[in-house]
UniProtKB/TrEMBL annotation:
This is AAA family ATPase. It comes from the Bacteria. InterPro entries: AAA_GajA/Old/RecF-like (IPR041685), P-loop_NTPase (IPR027417). The lineage of its organism: Bacteria, Pseudomonadati, Pseudomonadota, Gammaproteobacteria, Vibrionales. Residues 1-75 form the Endonuclease GajA/Old nuclease/RecF-like AAA domain.
Length: 88
C-alpha cells in the first residue's frame, strides 16, 4: 500500500511473470490491484468476478481504506485482439 511509481509490463514474449519481494513489500497489493481491473468476457454468471472479494477472501490484512491506484494501458489499434500493455 506504500507502492508508488511502480512500472509493471506484461510482455507477450514472456511466458512467466514473477512478483518477488520481502514480506510486506507489496506483492499482494500488486495482485489485488490487478484483480480489481479484471472484467470477464461474454455472459456474466451469478459470480461475475467484478468485486475484489471474489478473488481474495477479506481478512484483517486487506484493509484498503484510503488506498488508491491508477492503471494506464495501451494497445495496438491495428490488432485489437492483442493483449493491452500496462504502462503504469
Amino acid at each position: 500500500k506504500g507502492i508508488t511509481d511502480f512500472p509493471l509490463d506484461f510482455n507477450d514474449e514472456k511466458r512467466v511473470t514473477a512478483i518477488i519481494g520481502m514480506n510486506g513489500s507489496g506483492k499482494s497489493t500488486i495482485i489485488h490491484a490487478l484483480a480489481c481491473t479484471f472484467k470477464p468476457k461474454g455472459k456474466q454468471t451469478s459470480k461475475d468476478y467484478s468485486r475484489l472479494s471474489d478473488f481474495f477472501t477479506p481478512n484483517k490484512h486487506t484493509d484498503w481504506e484510503d488506498a488508491r491506484f491508477t492503471l494506464e494501458f495501451s494497445f495496438d489499434e491495428r490488432n485489437p485482439n492483442k493483449n493491452p500493455q500496462v504502462t503504469r
